[in-house]
Amino acid sequence: MSQKIPVTVLTGFLGSGKTTLLNRILTEKHGKRIAVIENEFGEIGIDHQLVIQSDEEIFEMNNGCLCCTVRGDLIRILGNLLKRRDRFDHILIETTGLADPGPVTQTFFMDEDLKDNFSLDGVVTVVDAKHILLHWEEAPEVKEQVAFADVILLNKTDLVPLSEVEALEKRIRSMNRLAKVYRTERSKIEMEKVMGLGGFDLERILEHEPDFLQAASKTLGENKDHDHGDSHDHDHDCEGVGCGHESHSHSHEHSHECDKDHVHGPDCDHDHDHEDHHHDESVKSVGIQSLNEMDGQKLSAWISELLREKGADIFRMKGVLNVKGSPNRVVFQGVHMTFEANSDVPWGDEKRQNTLVFIGRNLDREALNAGFKSCYVS
Amino acid sequence: MSITGLDSPLHEVFKFTAGDAIGALAWSPEGERVAIGSLAGELIVFEVSTQKPLLSISEAHLLGTQALAWSPDGKRLASGGCDGKVKVWDLSAGVPIGEYLFKGAWVSHLLWGVFKKGTQKKGYLIAAAGKKIVCLNDEGEVNHLYPDHPFGIEDLTWRPKSAQFSVSCHGGVSVWSVMKSKLERTYEWKNPAIYHRWSEDGQWIAAGGQDGSVHIWIAKSGVDFHMGGYMRKVDRLAWHPGGRWLATPNGGNLAIWDCSPPGPEGRIPDEYAWHEKNIISLGYQHHGDLLATGGEEGHVAFWLPGKRDFPVGKLALQSAVLQLTWRPDDQAIAIGMQSGEIRIFDRG
Questions:
Q1: Do B192 and A262 touch (CB under 8 A)?
Q2: CA nearest B149 in A: which residue?
Q3: What domains, with CATH codes, occur in chain A?
Q4: Which of A42, A46, A236, A306 has its CA 20 to 30 A from that of B129?
Q5: Short-list A169, A102, A119, A159, CA closest to A360
Q6: Cα(B334)–Cα(B322) distance, rounded to whole angstroms?
Q7: Chain A: residue nearest B227 by CA?
Q8: Helix, strand or coil for residue A206?
Q9: CA distance A369 to chain B (A)
């Protein structure tokens, strides 16, 4: 099977320096064949780069009982790129300054072709150090863009006193503990820091914020002896058309609940809460770490319910989990109501443990801890 | 190379390789020529019997040619591509005689038909790009524009036995008049309808969904049925010419719905497994019972749904089968692949 094509999502509020970064990426000599999907009109790119204009077409998808917003234009454009014999090495998607990064990232969970052929390499958010505080309160997108980021460029630091930069960085880190933060001037940064991040890397928070996870682990009780027994299977047998299952990367519980009711029946008319832009902002990160073995089925049920109820407030969720019966690390990734669990590399000599991070609004640390604990192997 | 097992075998009569994946493939109305659009931007027209290129433009559309339509008299060809342009070609002159530009959107679909307006017959070329649709004349000049769709246009096709066409996008299917910019009817559905086709008698509309389902409406009453549970999005489907069978891909399986009265509701589809990977193209004969399916793995199968639950003919090719199209007389099939290859198999 051919390797997945990495995708970088570039966000940043108006005037943050996003376009400057994009131009740097396009002109840098990195030898990569990049397709850029941008929101403003672009002529054909430089050298081997392809620049495609697209207007952000966001629609809500009701997939059985699961709702989420996706970018229809991306499905069409990337679907076309996939058909080509000469593939691109990297895809770069620039969002508008006012965009919520949710739909663009969710698209890669919701469309099978995109899920199978692309990997979300990272969300890069450019922050204007001089002006961000002006928008902080009235534009919820600013916090969403910070919360979604894997990499944050704290840009225009030359225009702001050092003390302000430090205060801002602290504030940003309190919201998003997962992201790497770089201070930049005129969006100048080495390409390898924004592209080719290799996707999932929870270890990096341990590098720069060891306390974040340790604090959480204290609330999770004592370690247990490991017991490698029954196997947990993340796949579900599908009975074919009419079975009612959705793609299994989605919230499993949802699809099972709908099951046969959706066959030949009327559309699902469950209520779904899609409040995207609350204004009572309290975006933060909650980290959970423990050595306990997890019961895969309980975990799947808990996460499904959690995302169904709180999915609108949970921007991103990432985790590496110690699931009973799996010789491999089980890697979780979620965006709002969608999530996927994949079997990663074997644990080998590495200590088996759980590391799970939520970034979102109004997160209840105690409730998350309690829910997580309830999934321990009993 | 031949395809056996059919009542008469199909023999390979034509082979050509374009510069990139085949974006569009269309038989001329009389069935003697085939037009090829590639994602490298080429536009090539061959006379199949002699293998002679009648038109060969290496860069008809920058970034890719992905839509083609022949004029009903076969004298002209319209092409559309990722440069946002529709070009109308006069085949005898080998040059574009008209051009229309959609700003900032790829041309995804083209339809060309002749309809009677008053006492005169006129040609109408319908082109879609992004959220926009325009009706051009035979020269590529604007007849009229349609209002923007709320979402990107996923599919465009004729409504049978009418001077109307239909559009599917997120929210369902809408039906429009060809002669003027008039919305005739809508068939609503709250999910993205990424492909749709009418049964030949015009009684049914079936739409495939991004959400892994098929939605069917009775055209007259608007009564709808929903069939869920597909393992992936349903981006192709095909009606048996008699209107009884609706063929849909379910990943690598072929799922066939029986739409004979009282309709598919409550029925379980027949499901046939053969392809190793997803079915990404399929096409029924225009008048016959044979259905062809093309897989991501590069195999083509020929089926007689409702009669046989296994492929009656098979063909192993080396690249994902993006396009399958039967010649108007049903005696030959053209196959377009991701590798850029075109293969034509003929009963003659």
A1: no
A2: A57
A3: 5-199 (3.40.50.300), 202-378 (3.30.1220.10)
A4: A46
A5: A102
A6: 11
A7: A264
A8: helix
A9: 33
Answer whether residue A185 shows pLDDT above 80: yes
Candidate from A22-36, A204-218, B161-175, B330-344 with smallest mean pLDDT: A204-218
- What's the pLDDT score for residue A201? 54
CB contact under 8 Å between B210 and A61, yes or no, is: yes
Residue A232's pLDDT band (cuts 50, 70, 90): very low
**Which CATH architecture describes the domain B22-148?**
7 Propeller (2.130)
Does the N-terminal peptide bond of residue B262 adopt cis geometry, omega within 30 degrees of 0?
A: yes
Backbone angles phi, psi at B176, to 5 degrees: -125, 150
In this prediction, residue A333 carries a pLDDT of: 82
Residue of A nearest to B337 (CA): A83
Q: Do A44 and B255 touch (CB under 8 A)?
A: no
What Cα–Cα distance (Å) separates residue A113 from each residue in A340, B129, B232? Answer: 15, 22, 9
Average pLDDT value over all residues in chain A: 76
Q: Read off the pLDDT of each residue in A18-36 and give the average, rounded to a whole number.
A: 86
Find chain A residues with C-beta within 8 A of B21's C-beta: 83-85
The answer to whether B227 contacts A72, with C-beta atoms less than 8 Å apart, is no
* pLDDT of B40 strictly over 50: yes
Interface with B, mutate which of A55, A241, A247, A249 (most B CBs under 10 A): A241
